Amino acid sequence: MKTSINYVIERSTTASRIGLLLGAAICGLLVSLPFWADSSTLRLLVEFMCYLVLAQMWNLLAGYGGLISIGQQAFVGIGGYGLFLMANHGNMNPFIAVLVGGIIAAILAVPTAKIVFRLRGGYFAVGTWVVAEVYRLAISNVPLVGGGSGQSLTAMSGIPKATRESITFWIASAMAIGLIALIYWLLRSRFGVALTAIRDSEAASESQGVDVERVKFYVYVLSAFGSGLVGALYYLNVLRIAPNSAFDLSWVVSAIFIVVIGGIGTIEGPILGAVIFFIMREMLSDYGSWYLMVMGLVAIIVMIKWPKGIWGFIQQRFDLRFFPVQRRVHLIEPSSAASSQMLNSNDGKFKSVL
What we know:
Oligomer: single chain
Strand order of the largest sheet: 1-4
Shape: globular
Helix content: 55-70%
Structural class: mainly alpha
Number of helices: 15
């Protein structure tokens, strides 16, 4: 009896389909939240989404692109100051200026990339930090934006508090959902395949026709844009900015912590890591320096016990993927012509990407 080997290519999972429904429910909740939540809850959630997006941007750089940067605070600060420059001095609507802050960060990332991409490995990481310090010192000497003491967002003074908080929260929600969706879409495209190939081996990917420098450049600029949006939105939320806080190293340290404990190289990891980070921060914020010591201890334990992070362990143990970016080939060997015919009749249930 003649048999044939059939296969299907799967790009979604049961968890991803459930996650899609869960995501829709979360979107509905976020839209309604400003109508019934208090101000402190809204401000905390805006801050949470800022750190979540920053962690996703760093994860895109390091977890998928293999670019270990410790200077993303440069673009957080640039985005924040771009907001203040356009809103306070350019008479632009502050909410629109958030997007402009991200664009300014992306524009400045172009010459920055030309400099730091000359470095490799640890030199690249240190170089990005040095560039961030250069930006901080430069901004500190610009009187227009308050110099070293910073300035307040006076452009928001004529907007009612309730309106300001609601719109800020909705912008934060749109930013978080939109950028995570964009990363997911990119990683499922040919660009994402090239990106992960570069992470695994630049030489091998280049031998297969991947333009390594161009892909890394695009990822760097996209990460700068997302980080700039984070800075603009964060300081729109707190209404005051200063160079030492906007370009603080703690921005990238927090992002690295979130990604490491959550799971580097996954989209779900930074989401879980951000939740853990904020729970720990709220619980330990009254303990002074012990807060940082406990955070460091947790990071060490996770890196030793679960090198791929908590979500990496869960994914490996239970094969649970809410954001599947890999293509999976399932081979099916019918034992008879009848079973082969049954398989062919069910082929329409599977979605192939070939």
